[in-house]
Amino acid sequence: MTSRPLPIGSPSEHWRLPRHPRSVGRARQRLRQELTARRISTDMLATAELLLSELVTNAVQHAHVLPGREIEVSYELSNSHLRVEVADASDEQPEQRAVDNNDERGRGLLLVDALATKWGVSPQSIIGKFVWFELPLPMD
């Protein structure tokens, strides 16, 4: 994965959450607070929250790691985009899958693929991976 450098002083944050279903709502709430304080548009905020929910849900449900391991969420704002990352200690890669109309699960990465400008999966330096997405910031 290549990442563009952020301008000096670009807002960024990261926080850790337990690998627990309640962490999905906590991650959304924290991102909403952070981005609202930075005056991100309501539409972009809603999209970012939805996609973050999908990535944290995947980490909670599918990252087969030891109990007590945490999920790390981070975001960065540049002049052109918002980038959100969700890291976990599992090396297992997420997969997009075909779903039927009647399926109740399995659409998370399809949503990420449809709504994000870019997204991907990258290994962490020691163990695990992070899944990320980018959304464009509106031009003034």
TrEMBL record:
InterPro entries: Anti-sigma-factor_SerPK (IPR050267), HATPase_C_sf (IPR036890), HATPase_dom (IPR003594). Keywords: ATP-binding, Kinase, Nucleotide-binding, Serine/threonine-protein kinase, Transferase. Residues 1-27 are annotated as: Disordered. Residues 18-119 form the Histidine kinase/HSP90-like ATPase domain. This is ATP-binding protein. Residues 17-27 have a biased composition (Basic residues). Coiled coil: none annotated. Pfam families: HATPase_c_2. One of its GO terms (molecular function) is protein serine/threonine kinase activity. The keyword ATP-binding applies.
